[in-house]
């Protein structure tokens, strides 16, 4: 479908909802605040396509930032359906990616911030070594430097503007620790992950011309999941949008804020809605879930909200499962009873998700599903293909091309080549570089068609034939070549982990694979049926959550995020007599109208 027709169709879909339509048509600063499943992302992507088609004239474009790579990839997929692809007119990525590729990369050599032209992102080991040097020089005590750094790191994320008096007034020793650490990195031509938005902020604040250059290129800034983005993004927004003249379109839901550890603060989003130069639009309908699941979710949150299901939508279905013992026995119930029952009821495996708190719990479910011969795909840190890694996803797409995708261009070779160019050279490559890269990629892929190689052998060849030459010429400052080594280790035939390439590419018999995901990775996604695993009184909340009121509130929001993912069915699994107190509240609320 042409992008024009796709946009017209998307606009028509929102027509029946006046708030969504008003947000899409808005030409001033606009914040959309709403609950789960209310179409925030749908509204944002439609607004972005509309702005590119109607408000912003080529060669100008728009930028869209979000919390992590997973969300950025999800946004890219949704925007691609509207004909918007990343490129010169559309930046789609994380705040860190924006800072690095749109501010630090192009302008660092023009301003005195202490980075050489060939700067690089520090490895974890390099960053740890710099912490130790700074600790010795500034504090020189007897405690663990890395434990002390945790406090410093918190201050670094919170006190973004160091020209304000609180930078030195609130704990000057930590300020010196941070500055010495950063000087140690700069001495080696390095920057770290947290440096990215901080340096970009400093460059934009101190150099009005950079602000103007950004406004010329991106007159509108879109922000998804604003509640999770923390102080650095917030300060960047204040600078770029409220001082720098860029128009802001942001969406978020403070009830779904689950990244306090990374510096998120739901209050920042609320503070924008109090500004008189911002139009705040609230969405009321939940298009995703049935009424019973919506009521249950309010019990999970422990607060009332005015959210409604759409008229005529089915109620949805809730069920509670007790297992006689601990987590292993709960995983067994999922594999032996719940999933087979859902499939019998007509749910497709690809539309069923099992959600849990940590990847370690995912291991238990994975073992149980493997024993029961239920195909699954993991989207947590122990996943074979990390959803948050663009390189891992590129490798998976190559496998899809090699195992049949080449026949019907799903994915197309052009798409793979453009991904490879971005991974190796950032956005731009010379004609010669593009030709060389294409020749290497094509030779590798052609040799992969109808190959008898298993995934492990195929990955080893990919490492030799693509990564070795590519890592020599790469210009992208955020490289993840080690992801392929991790995949090779995770498919080691000696440990019985290897699988066919078709299986790795997701081309297996049946209607897809059950999704296993942490609650954090399930954010922003939806499934027909969701099974919440391990909702025991010792885990929701855990002792650690109970240490502070803020920790307890965040754990509860995490529970809420899980409960709001299903469209039609929600199962909660816990140990007999040991269910979380929030499960009881959820049940009681689901029974009330
Ligand atoms: N106006 C609409 N008409 C029909 N379906 C809609 C409409 N708006 C949104 N939807 C559907 O509702 C579902 C939820 O939308 P979306 O993911 O954009 O919500 P969200 O508010 O971003 O959710 P969350 O915060 O829970 O991630 C999607 O399936 C979307 O297609």
UniProtKB/TrEMBL annotation:
Keywords: ATP-binding, DNA-binding, Helicase, Hydrolase, Isomerase, Nucleotide-binding
Catalysis performed (reactions): ATP + H2O = ADP + phosphate + H(+); Couples ATP hydrolysis with the unwinding of duplex DNA by translocating in the 3'-5' direction
Keyword set includes DNA-binding: yes
Record-linked InterPro entries: DExx_box_DNA_helicase_dom_sf, DNA_helicase_UvrD-like_C, DNA_helicase_UvrD/REP, P-loop_NTPase, UvrD-like_ATP-bd
Positions annotated to bind ATP: 34-41
Limits of the UvrD-like helicase C-terminal domain: 284-524
Domain UvrD-like helicase ATP-binding: 13-290
Domain of life: Bacteria
Pfam families on file: UvrD-helicase (PF00580), UvrD_C (PF13361)
Database matches in SUPFAM superfamilies: P-loop containing nucleoside triphosphate hydrolases
Gene Ontology biological process: recombinational repair
E.C. code: 5.6.2.4
The protein's name in its UniProt record: DNA 3'-5' helicase
